[in-house]
């Protein structure tokens, strides 16, 4: 079991940073690059399908930039309905599919391999104070 100090946890607010797919030749060399790239791949469900919610996923990558294991949803807004949760879970998984394999530089590949990234996706600009619903 890895010690707390060895884990690489990243919490990033991804606020609809755009919907265009990242360029294939852009190498990912920093944690910020990972978050920016995921933000470019993020397409929240349209308001007609789901009310905006916040959702957090923990995901790990291998050295080649592919998803390692299964991404895990660790947080969803408490006021979300089951339908909202489903639509946002699908949108998160689609964003991960669009962004992988993550084109890590050699250095970043070694640093990121197997480490969990906790990535927050926000479906709204600000989150009202609510009671959290952890899953």
Could you characterize what this model shows?
- With 135 residues, this protein is of the alpha+beta class.
- The chain contains 3 helices and 5 strands; from the N terminus they run βαββααββ.
- The protein has a 5-stranded mixed sheet with strand order 1-4-2-3-5, with helices on one face.
- Helix 1 (31-41) crosses helix 2.
- The longest helix has 18 residues, at 82-99.
- The two termini are 22 Å apart.
- 27% of the residues are buried.
Name the descriptors:
135 residues; disordered N terminus; 5 strands; alpha+beta; five-stranded mixed β-sheet; single chain; 3 helices
End-to-end CA span: 22 Å
Strand percentage, roughly? 15-25%
| Spatial arrangement of strands, main beta sheet | 1-4-2-3-5
Number of strands: 5
The helix/strand class is: alpha+beta
Could you list the spans in which at least 5 consecutive residues all have pLDDT below 50? 1-24, 126-130
Principal-axis shape equals elongated
Q: Given the structure, what is the number of helices?
A: 3
The major pleated sheet works out as: 5 strands, mixed
List the secondary-structure elements in sequence, H or E. Answer: EHEEHHEE
Helix fraction by DSSP (H/I, runs of at least 4): 25-40%
Rounded mean pLDDT score? 80
What does the radius of gyration come to? 15 Å
